[in-house]
Amino acid sequence: MPLKLEIVTPEANIFSDVVDSVVLPGYEGEMGVLPAHAPLVTTLLPGALRYTKGGKSTDLAVGEGLVEITGTTARVLTDMAIGVDEIDEAAVEEAIARAKKSLESLKPGEHQEEVAAVMAMIQRSTAQLHIKRRRTSI
At what angle do helices 112-137 and 89-105 cross, to 10 degrees? Predict the structure, then answer.
């Protein structure tokens, strides 16, 4: 029984194909999905999504989102999905530095929505760096 993986962002349908397995980042750690997985809806955290097809593994940096799993399909709805080759390490490091500087300028207890947005951006950027550096160090 095949497992169809669909990855969708607000901008585009990033990936749609049959795969052997998927590993997703979640609140309680990594979650593996194989064909015939029990139906599930769960949250997705920023991190590494890895899918395997024909013995070859591919990593994507993903942001926050939702995952719907049926017996035959894993649908990932996320705010970001980027392949290793698309990540500009220097630009991501610069974005993290700007975000940290922005956080320092905010007063504690004020601008909670802005703080949350900046923290989410730092998490997405950190996920990208993790994927890029893991790939280049192997």
Answer: 150
Predicted local distance difference test score (pLDDT) of residue 44: 94
pTM of the full structure: 0.78
Domain borders along the chain are 3-84, 87-137
* Average pLDDT across the chain, whole number: 87
Assign a CATH topology to domain 3-84: ATP Synthase; domain 1 (2.60.15)
pLDDT digits 0-9 by tens, 7-53: 999 999 999 999 999 999 988 889 999 999 999 999 999 989 999 99
CB 83 within 8 A of CB 60: yes
CA-wise closest residue to 60 among 134, 137, 138: 134
Cβ–Cβ under 8 Å, residues 85 and 99 = no
